[in-house]
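ok so I'm stuck.
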Amino acid sequence: MFKQLLCKIFSDQCQLTSLKLDITKSFNSIHQCLNLQSHLEPNTISKSCCLTLRRLCIHIDHKCFLEHLIEHTPNLEQLSVHFRNFLINNDHPDSDTQALIISNGNWFNKISKLKCFKLKSCVRNDLEFAYLKWLLNNVNHVKKLEIHLYSEDIGRSFIDANFIREYCLPDHIINLKDFRFYMFAKCQLSLNDTEKIINSFKINSFFIDHQWTNVKCFYDENISYQHIFSSNFDKYQYFDHLLNYRYILNDLLDPQHIKINFDPSLYSFFEQFNELCPNAFCITIDTECSDERSEMLATLFTVGQRNLNNIQFVNITKLQFGSCHRRSTRM
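replied:
not stuck anymore, here's the structure
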């Protein structure tokens, strides 16, 4: 039933111009449904396209859905793709992906009107970085490109200008004017390394020519993760201030949701919260581990003038207590 609905959405029976679609946690057969549709008789293939769709945001588990999708959305102008976990799912043999990468295909003839492409995913290994590069080369005609990546093992010492140029941009830049990226990767850095990484963009001729030299880089010593992103990412611009607070779980994958390990000095942080976290609408305070922590938390609501009830949160609509997980690949 759901497969039939998806096929209708991406056919001439649909008149949508904008769509947000989440098919994560669904069977592989759901992700394959558009591939089955492409096996129609030649004279019916033209009818399987949604000619009106201009803006699409999809959350998926399997890359095959994206690869088949472009056959059915020829007038797409904005495409945002969120992989729930990894770029390449274990259900697909590595040999299939390697063969696809070697094919050096280009999607210009399929989605020639695409102007903006956004990708969010977790990348584990060299094969997935190679697939990422293949994907970016397929959309090298876009004007705006936005990349959000998480990696537990980049296989290198750290991420700098050379890394971004090699793995996070198309080989040939045609129309690209606006490039934004954020990467969150496990590695070992020193203060000197951080300065070198920032300077690597300022001395790289490619980034100088495109005026993409303004980059921010921070290192979270508590969990050994490097954060590096374009300074034009407004929602990340306050992150450097948050590093001063040891109890903040620094996960930029969701800057609207601030996760906090409980600490007796939380009240002073909350007093500055509106300034430090202007984009956040949800706070989760980790209260696990001990009864003592729960009792200390209660004092935030009861002790004299330093009472959490007196804090006026401007944008916060949800306050949660419980377990905080440091990382989620769902972005």
